[in-house]
Design goal:
With 280 residues, the protein is an alpha/beta fold. It has 5 helices and 16 strands. Strand 13 (230-234) and strand 14 (237-241) form a beta hairpin. The longest helix is centred in the first third of the chain and has 11 residues, at 36-46. The mean pLDDT is 94.
Length: 280
Amino acid sequence: MLELTEISLHLPQLPDYLRGLRILQVGDLHIRGYGQKEKHLRRIISQGCDLLIFTGDFCHQLRFSNPFAIQTYEPLRVGLSRQGLIFAAHTDLALEVCEKLLEECSPSLGAFAVQGNHDPNEFMQHLPRLGVTTLTNETQQVHVSNGSYFNLCGLRGYGRSTIDIAQTMLTTEPALFTIAVCHYPEIAMPLAGAGADLILSGHTHGGQICLPNGRPLVTHSFSGHQYATGLERIGSSFIYTTRGLGCSVIPIRLFCPPEITRITLQHGDHGETTIEATRL
């Protein structure tokens, strides 16, 4: 049931040198092995893009949560606690599969990733050898052509307490178009207020288990259903929250198919934006 969501996103503030920029957004893999979804993803990655963005949670981590515990800002701790029973993340398997996924990866502007709440530090430190730049509460100015750049901001998401918006935005160039990446969609409004034109996030799985109309039963986001899935506008900015590819706890999705997202940036009025989903 994997879908490729194609978005032609029109923004009046988009500079001419970013017209036609193709972004491939991949989130919440929760890698359990190299199966059919991963094969489809490898094929889509091999088709090429300008910018490959991973929004966190590469690793699968089994946990039995305490339904009465309040969501914490701190990173998950392996073992038994008031949050439930947490097992170690499958980092070796995730790295093995990621290496295979990226064998034919050649985005012209690079591949980038932020840390999700299931991605231990020891996993993230291996991504650069696979050609993926990790962004940890920092901004890079990405060179496009002829001396043109845009801001690419990445916030650390290994628990909400690791997020530092002020530190991340400190080195942005205010005059440049800004893309911000954060695992948690509830950070969208402060990021938009700080100058982000496009925000890419994940974490919610689109609900994973939804009603027939696609409304999530649970989002695990502090902003509830707001920004829980899909494209939403925040003033002159946009956020896209991917449903991701994987599952947490049980490998079941209901009325919420997994997705890969390909966004093409265009200059123009917001109303010209189009979204089309294709089943792979």
